[in-house]
Q: What sequence folds into this?
């Protein structure tokens, strides 16, 4: 049972973390994230960085799709814009990485606003299809513009902090995890502000929201800009992580991946974006492990990995939508509810 | 400018466009009856090509026995998919259903790769190979016969939609589900029927597409072009699918031969954005009026 939650002010009622237990859990999470690189092997640090990048991007998509109700299948392409911005700045200008990441976010936000303009006239599926078109056009630009290095793409030097090259996952970890944590926290706070609440109003009924005095186009474009900013910074971190950016790095299937991640995690919840992105990033790795164990019995198990991955990916989307449409976040809520009501309802 | 060349390219484009139109009709059938945007149509088409390949090369059937069996398999797949995946999603937001079909497409693509491997395959030759000339212009025989068969199938589908009992029931359901139901139409069966008809059509189209260009697990990309076709034509309009199919085929062929192969998708998707800006509901689509 949940006790000791007496609120004496609106500020306390609106607080992001309202009990001591939550603060303790948060502190423990922070501590374990700090200790993680000292105990985990390089593979797990690599995975943690990848998960964090995907969490950042999925959270951005969640702002747009989960909270504003505008479905986008262009998230991966927007990440590409961010990655290319970072790569170009790093190789041609040589500005420090913080400025590069911010520039990547800003650049992508601008591109996102341009491709968000159709959202004035179309919504729902039509918008999803317009964003597919956007990602096709961006892919074409990446592979045909001299600045982006054509189909060969760009390779870039590692990020450096005070003369120290961040070239290994265990060094980059200290860049990627804090930035992601900051972004997730920012997103969680966004929905306690006027802008964030306007997003939710538009999702629930856009015409009613307009009647309430929310400027539709402006707010929708703000949502696009914020979401693309997240995608851009995530793409920038991606570029520092892999240090090679090619047009093929950001295919349409990755956009579907991010949409699937927030569906599996739970649309319209911050926790959903985190859980979903983590889950969807780790599933292929688990599959790889399982296939690895099967190798002694099934001789060509490794060649089966790619199709099995595709099947599991599709089955997860379909299964979650049919059986658990609120996603992993809802499962988590159910567990919490059980303990909240524990002695009374068993 | 070489007019003969342009004419030949246009003819090839229209031939390819006929296949887009055929698949587009399958797409529209599903959308009309169930309001589901089926992004898996490209993968169902691919599966049709592979089933045909399996029946001919694996089971050793003759080509003319394999084609009806492939179409039957398509109908069966449609029935299963509608029953197992689409019916439970009834009443959910269109986006969720749309994502279910994306997931379905991923499953189908994975299954095909698991069964037949990732390498492209060639279907056995069964289309006559004598060159065809229209006036002076040369048309590749495969494309010409493919377009001919597609045109016949479209005509058949249109006739069925216009005159057959099932077709009338489908149109009635599309117009007003409640009214159709109270007139004694089994709306659930119409849903099944539309999926079966559409998937059978798509599987048939898959055989033709595969015969022209070979089959591979990435053939589902065809579905993206079909998506452009139906958006340009209007999601719920058969006429739109026909005009859109021919238009997109033409645009792709012209862009492909005058600008280069990589401009094909760019041209069609730019056209898509343009149409979405000017007429979001497509050339012939119904403009939905929103009520509060």
A:
């Amino acid at each position: 049972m949940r006790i000791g939650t007496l609120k004496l002010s609106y500020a306390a009622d609106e607080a992001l973390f309202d009990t001591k237990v939550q603060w303790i859990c948060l502190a423990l999470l922070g501590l374990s994230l700090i200790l993680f690189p000292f105990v985990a092997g390089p593979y797990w640090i690599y995975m943690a960085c990848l998960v964090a990048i995907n969490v950042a991007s999925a959270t951005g998509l969640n702002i747009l799709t989960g909270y504003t109700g505008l479905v986008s299948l262009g998230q991966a392409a927007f990440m590409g814009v961010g990655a290319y911005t970072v790569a170009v700045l790093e190789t041609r200008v040589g500005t420090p990485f913080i400025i590069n990441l911010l520039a990547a976010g800003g650049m992508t936000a601008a591109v996102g606003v341009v491709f968000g303009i159709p959202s004035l006239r179309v919504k729902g599926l039509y918008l999803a299809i317009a964003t597919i078109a956007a990602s096709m056009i961006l892919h074409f630009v990446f592979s045909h513009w001299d600045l982006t290095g054509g189909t060969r793409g760009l390779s870039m030097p590692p990020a450096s902090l005070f003369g120290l090259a961040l070239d290994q996952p265990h060094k980059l970890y200290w860049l990627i995890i804090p930035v992601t944590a900051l972004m997730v926290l920012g997103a969680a706070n966004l929905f306690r502000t006027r802008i964030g609440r306007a997003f939710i109003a538009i999702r629930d009924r856009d015409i009613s929201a307009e009647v309430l005095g929310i400027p539709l186009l402006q707010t929708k474009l703000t949502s696009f800009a914020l979401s693309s900013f997240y995608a851009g910074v995530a793409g920038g971190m991606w570029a520092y992580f892999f240090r090679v950016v090619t047009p093929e790095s950001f295919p349409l299937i990755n956009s579907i991946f991010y949409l699937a991640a927030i569906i599996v995690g739970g649309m319209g919840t911050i926790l959903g974006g985190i859980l979903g992105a983590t889950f969807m990033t780790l599933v292929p790795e688990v599959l790889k492990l399982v296939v690895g164990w099967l190798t002694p019995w099934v001789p060509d198990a490794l060649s089966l990995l790619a199709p099995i991955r595709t099947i599991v990916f599709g089955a997860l989307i379909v299964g979650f939508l049919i059986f658990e449409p609120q996603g992993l976040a809802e499962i988590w809520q159910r567990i919490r509810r059980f303990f909240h009501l524990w002695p009374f309802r068993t | 400018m070489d007019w003969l060349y342009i004419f030949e390219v246009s003819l090839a484009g229209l031939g390819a466009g006929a296949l887009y139109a055929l698949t587009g009709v399958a797409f529209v059938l599903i959308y009309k009856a169930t309001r589901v945007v089926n992004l898996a149509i490209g993968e169902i088409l691919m599966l049709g090509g592979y089933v045909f390949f399996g029946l001919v090369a694996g089971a050793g059937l003759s080509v003319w026995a394999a084609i009806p069996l492939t179409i039957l398999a398509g109908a069966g797949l449609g029935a299963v998919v509608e029953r197992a995946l689409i019916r439970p999603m009834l009443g959910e937001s269109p986006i969720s259903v749309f994502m279910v079909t994306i997931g379905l497409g991923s499953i189908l693509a994975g299954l095909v790769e698991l069964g037949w491997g990732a390498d492209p395959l060639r279907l056995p030759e069964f289309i006559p190979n004598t060159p065809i000339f229209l006036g002076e212009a040369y048309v590749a025989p495969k494309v010409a016969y493919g377009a001919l068969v597609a045109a016949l199938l479209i005509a058949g589908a249109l006739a069925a939609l216009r005159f057959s009992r099932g077709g009338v029931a489908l149109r009635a359901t599309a117009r007003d589900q409640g009214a159709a139901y109270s007139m004694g139409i089994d709306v659930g069966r119409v849903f099944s029927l539309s999926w079966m008809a559409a998937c059978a059509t798509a599987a048939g189209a898959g055989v033709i597409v595969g015969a022209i260009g070979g089959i591979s697990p990435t053939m589902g990309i065809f579905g993206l072009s079909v998506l452009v076709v139906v958006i340009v034509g209007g999601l719920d309009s058969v006429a739109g699918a026909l005009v859109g199919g021919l238009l997109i085929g033409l645009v792709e062929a012209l862009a492909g031969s005058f600008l280069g192969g990589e401009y094909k998708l760019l041209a069609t998707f730019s056209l898509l954005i343009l149409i979405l800006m000017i007429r979001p509901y497509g050339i012939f689509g119904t403009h939905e009026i929103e009520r509060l």
Remarks:
- Chain A has a mean pLDDT of 88.
